[in-house]
Amino acid sequence: MDTAVKQSPARAGEKEPSGAYRNLVMATLGFALTFWAWNLIAPMSADYKDRLGLSSFQQSLLVAVPVLVGSLGRIPVGALTDKYGARLMFPLTSALTVVPVLLLIPAKNSYGAMLAVGFLLGLGGTTFAIGVPLVNSWFRPADRGLALGVFGMGMGGVALSGYFTPRIAKHGDNLPFLVVAGALVVYAALAAVLLNDRPGRQVPTDSLAQRLRTAGRLRVTWELSALYAIGFGGIVAFGVYLPTYLKTWYELSPTDAGTKAAGFALVTVVFRPIGGWLSDRVHPALVTSAALGLAALTAIVQAFDPELMPGGTIALLCMAAGLGTASGSVFALVSQVTPQAKVGSVTGIVGAMGGLGGFVPPLVMGAIYSAKGSYSIGFMLLSDLALAGCVYAYGRMRNIQRDA
Length: 404
Fold this sequence. Notes:
It is globular and about 55 Å long. 77% of the residues lie in helices and 0% in strands. It has helices at residues 19-38, 45-52, 56-84, 86-107, 111-121, 128-138, 141-152, 157-169, 175-194, 208-217, 219-249, 254-279, 284-303, 308-337, 343-372, 376-395.
């Protein structure tokens, strides 16, 4: 197995530099805001379905397009972050995301226009590949798992979107887009002032294509990608599709469905740093295996269509805990086996696979429901994947030495 020599930004026993926590806070805030923007369509998808007369598959495709683009976009954005640094990339990406957010206003009455804007909206999902190398460089190896887990809490932007977007929309159809656009403008200005790359940051001299080829040749890149596709992919899939599932299967109102989906996302947010914290103390592969095992078990329970209260709620929240923990532990493992100068490139690929893991399930769930009138097959497929990840993480990945 290809592994790399640990490159520590601080010698053992040293504390993080004074700017570490400021940059962690700014990166987490930016991640949350851009993820809110990235997920703006999903909480309103039921309204778009009724307004535009969409089928379940068309609705799923509308929700999934930003996920696909944001996922693939992490690959070049991660490599560009290695080259130019997060100080440039974070405020620039946040500012550019304002454009598709505002374009959602004139596009709302056309399915084709919504797909096109959704494509551009994917830009908001790329900031994950900017924040990971930034946070990784500021924290020493013993604390990186927790720090990356805290940064990962920024994916709570999905929960913010699920909860607040439909409520803000009650006061005006265009108001959610104006609020998010304004928040992104303010953040981009603050990030340009307060965000800093670590002094002495290693800047690669080879081309973007060469860096991606090098990262792609590492076997561990693809092993981690597969695990992250299950863990984080499950989070993204439920983040964008759970409102539709709850509204369709349990006949909840859009507001209630969005609220419960936000609760699911909130649990994943809370458990992501727990996964990182545990990985600082136990081998992250063991944490990943246990977390995916929990997700597999609860997916089987949900496949039998329990009543929402309490069975379905308990199953979904336990599934959220497992997926959140796994997403935190996988990136704790990334930080251990990746040279600092390549973290952005590897993060881009792993993050892309995680996002792609969230692109396919909404389409599959929509197609299965359209064909069979049930979601059970979809949940059983999720349980199979999670169980496979559980076995692989325990049987193979635990053999990777810490700080190899």
